[in-house]
Write a structure and sequence with these properties.
With 200 residues, this protein is mainly α. The protein is built from eight helices and no strands. The chain has one domain.
Length: 200
């Protein structure tokens, strides 16, 4: 079942690894926690891109060494064909993850603008941003849908309790939500194959 998830989601093992690393932030003090999460977020993006680049490079040499597939490379074929192929095969899921991140970032900015204050803890925003990169399309949109619902709920509750000194926060639930959905991802892909057919 996990092998199926890997076949549908290029970054599935890496997502699980970074999710585990994210949980370590629970044991750090505030200053170290923010530095750790910021580094982890940037390192996650770097590793995902590096993984795609190395996979692309490996494919290039495999094609080049094969008596048939070498004709798909220059000088027999325009190099744009190979670029389009690796973009679709190795970078597509990252771009969808990036789109999901930008959507969630936009929603967070809208909530801050609507409330005229920031209802999120600093580390909470990093948890949300990191979680956006854990899921492949179309599964990441399912996570984003849940995120939108939770963000909307947070906005409503914050508005209701705005007179209180403290407010309700879901900061400790984002990684747990990600863990649950990440565990369910192989099952959902194997159970509902139609999800895979929606890949553009």
């Amino acid at each position: 079942m996990i092998n199926k998830a890997i076949a549908f989601d290029l970054y599935y093992p890496l997502s699980f690894l970074f999710l585990i690393l994210s949980f370590f932030s629970f044991f750090l003090n505030q200053e170290k926690k923010l530095n750790y999460l910021k580094f982890l977020f940037l390192f996650l993006i770097f590793i995902f891109l590096l993984y795609s680049s190395l996979s692309s490079l490996n494919l290039y040499f495999l094609w080049k060494s094969n008596s048939l597939s070498k004709y798909l490379l220059p000088p027999y074929q325009n190099f744009s064909y190979f670029l389009e192929y690796i973009l679709f095969t190795f970078y597509r899921d990252f771009l969808w993850r990036l789109l999901g991140f930008l959507l969630v970032l936009s929603v967070i900015q809208f909530i801050i603008f609507f409330l005229k204050r920031d209802p999120f803890y600093d580390e909470e925003k990093y948890y949300i941003f990191i979680s956006c990169f854990f899921f492949s399309f179309p599964y990441n949109f399912f996570f984003i849908f849940l995120s939108f619902f939770i963000l909307l709920l947070m906005a409503i509750l914050s508005k209701i309790f705005e007179k209180k000194d403290n407010y309700l926060s879901f900061k400790n639930y984002w990684l747990i939500l990600s863990l649950i959905l990440l565990i369910l991802e192989p099952y959902l892909y194997s159970r509902f194959f139609i999800l895979v057919q929606f890949k553009p």
